[in-house]
Structure to design on (471 residues):
């Protein structure tokens, strides 16, 4: 924990803040109660220094609270033992050598507060007290290191577990055809949340074990479709993604206004978007073209006054298969992406 | 080139604390139209743009962008920064304009990761 003084005396600029690591963030997030030792080994005032040394030795600790009639009165550490050893005074009671100037920290404080105290007081351990001023445990630099390591590990494991669970989704379900359907209601004009459905879809695919390139193609296509619902519809629409081991089918449906001329809408650069939408970087008339470029099959149906339905699919090759261990017999129309033979619309 | 070197070259300010500064940037792409970005960018590129709304981050996330640089000192709104932190995409503001930044990065050996357009993308 030498990093704790790295920013000492410096004004934290944006640039400096950028250098803050996850470990440092955790120091601000973790509470003392999450890393402290709850039931520390204790000594008593009348115990000899020799006995204290035995406790330290046996339990591999370097300090302990000192109790008198159950109440906390001091702390004894390995440094105090060394002082006694030098004077050949190990038969003296603990109370002769203990530190009575107690430095305490609240259990609800963050770990960074404990680190600051370690630096400022040069102490090796702090007494942790609860809201009723009772000793809740002790905290050492070792506790902090262990706590942070555990938290870092958890961060990593949580995502690993999610990926594992999702990637085995199809494995344990036996049916003639298993599919997973994700459905999102998209509000018209909701630019702030625009793309959050697509973001969840892409994440779901990655967690299910789809390769990054495939997740990217789906993500881009479905994001353009989501933005279209936000920009062009009367009442928003529904984004539906059906994930099967051999293909991913995406569909954007709305209830209007409908497209007058589908061929024109498909033309690169053609757009009916407003200035506001263009200022957001959309409405350049490339959305449908982009979708088509990313997928293997696309179909756009629309009736003015009734609504539009855009469907597109990505066929999975065996190596892209979503969900580990699914029988590979389920590949009906695998296709080589470069051939372009599936680049058709049935509009 | 990694993010840390990128920040030095563009004389940038990082807005996303906790970003992984050792992350590799494989090339660059400059655009203000998000559809252009989605159509042309290849994975692991730095995106230089003059827009700073949250859609830039969504676009970056979809297209596996390694970092976003806002040109001409543009300060992104809080929603943009929050989303970038959530999606772990480093956000950098540079005082320089798009042309200058593209030049600086190319000069330091960063290749373009913009795919040229198909001649006739719609009629195959």
């Amino acid at each position: 924990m030498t990093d704790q003084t790295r920013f000492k005396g410096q004004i934290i600029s944006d640039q400096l803040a950028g250098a803050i690591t996850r470990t440092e963030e955790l120091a601000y997030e973790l509470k003392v109660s999450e890393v402290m030792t709850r039931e520390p080994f204790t000594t008593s005032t009348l115990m000899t220094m020799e006995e204290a040394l035995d406790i330290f030795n046996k339990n591999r600790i370097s300090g302990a609270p000192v109790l008198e009639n159950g109440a906390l009165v001091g702390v004894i550490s390995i440094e105090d033992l060394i002082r006694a050893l030098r004077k050949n005074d190990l038969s003296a009671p603990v109370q002769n050598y203990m530190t009575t100037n107690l430095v305490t920290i609240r259990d609800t404080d963050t770990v960074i507060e404990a680190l600051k105290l370690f630096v400022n007081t040069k102490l090796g351990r702090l007494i942790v007290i609860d809201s009723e001023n009772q000793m809740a445990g002790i905290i050492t630099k070792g506790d902090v290191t262990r706590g942070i390591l555990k938290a870092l590990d958890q961060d990593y494991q949580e995502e690993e577990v999610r990926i594992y669970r999702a990637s085995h989704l199809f494995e344990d379900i036996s049916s003639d055809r298993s599919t997973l359907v994700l459905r999102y209601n998209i509000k018209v004009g909701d630019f702030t949340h625009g793309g959050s459905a697509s973001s969840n879809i892409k994440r779901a695919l990655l967690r299910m074990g789809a390769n990054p390139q495939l997740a990217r193609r789906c993500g881009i296509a479905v994001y353009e479709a989501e933005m279209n619902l936000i920009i062009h519809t009367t009442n928003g629409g529904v984004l539906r993604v059906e994930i099967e081991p051999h293909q991913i089918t995406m569909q954007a449906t709305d209830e209007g206004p409908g497209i007058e001329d589908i061929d024109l809408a498909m033309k690169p650069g053609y757009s009916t978007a407003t200035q506001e939408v263009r200022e957001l970087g959309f409405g350049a008339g490339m959305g449908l073209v982009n979708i088509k470029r990313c997928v293997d099959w696309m179909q756009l149906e629309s009736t003015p006054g009734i609504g539009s339905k855009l469907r597109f699919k990505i066929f999975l090759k065996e190596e892209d298969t979503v969900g580990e261990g699914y029988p590979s017999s389920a590949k009906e129309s695998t296709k080589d992406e470069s051939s372009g033979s599936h680049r058709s619309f049935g509009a | 080139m990694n993010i840390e070197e990128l920040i030095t070259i563009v004389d940038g300010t990082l807005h996303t604390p906790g970003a992984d500064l050792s992350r590799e940037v494989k090339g660059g792409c400059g655009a203000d139209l998000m559809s252009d970005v989605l159509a042309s960018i290849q994975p692991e590129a730095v995106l230089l743009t003059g827009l700073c709304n949250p859609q830039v981050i969504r676009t970056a996330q979809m297209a596996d962008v390694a970092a976003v640089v806002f040109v001409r000192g543009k300060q992104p709104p809080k929603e943009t920064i929050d989303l970038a932190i959530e999606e772990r995409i480093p956000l950098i503001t540079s005082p320089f304009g798009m042309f200058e930044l593209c030049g600086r990065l190319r000069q330091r050996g960063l290749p373009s990761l913009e795919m040229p357009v198909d001649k006739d993308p719609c009629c195959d």
